[in-house]
Specification:
By secondary structure, this protein is mainly alpha-helical. The chain is built from three helices and no strands. It has a single domain (28-110), classed as ACP-like (Non-ribosomal Peptide Synthetase Peptidyl Carrier Protein, Chain A, Orthogonal Bundle). α1 (34-48) packs across α3.
Length: 111
């Protein structure tokens, strides 16, 4: 028997999960602190860098040291917005030059 999934062209659907299969977390997750943001940004940038010329820190300049283009900065902002479920206003971008600046803004937006 074929079940409708709620959209045209759907041939089959898997049955809904049983309550025992649904994992619910009722414990609130702690808000990241400043150092967590710095660490996450550094890890994200290290995976994007072609060569690890030197370690990244909160003092690392996103454009001069890492070599990000303006497009890459916007892509980084988008990834951070998605990961931390927040919206970074474009008017604060001129104030962000280092990893520490970005972490400070993320921390202030989330708290």
């Amino acid at each position: 028997m074929v079940r409708a999934c709620g959209y045209i062209g759907a041939a089959q659907c898997s049955p809904p999960p049983r309550p025992s299969q649904v994992a619910l977390s009722l414990t609130p997750q702690p808000m990241p602190d400043y150092n967590s943001y710095v660490q996450f940004i550094c890890n994200l940038l290290q995976t994007q860098q072609k060569s690890a010329s030197r370690p990244l820190s909160e003092a690392t300049d996103l454009i001069a040291d890492v070599g990000l283009s303006s497009l890459q900065v916007m892509e980084l902002i988008e990834k951070l917005e998605d990961h931390f479920d927040l919206s970074i206003p474009l008017n604060i971008l001129p104030n962000i030059t280092t990893i520490g600046d970005l972490a400070t803004q993320l921390h202030s937006l989330k708290h």
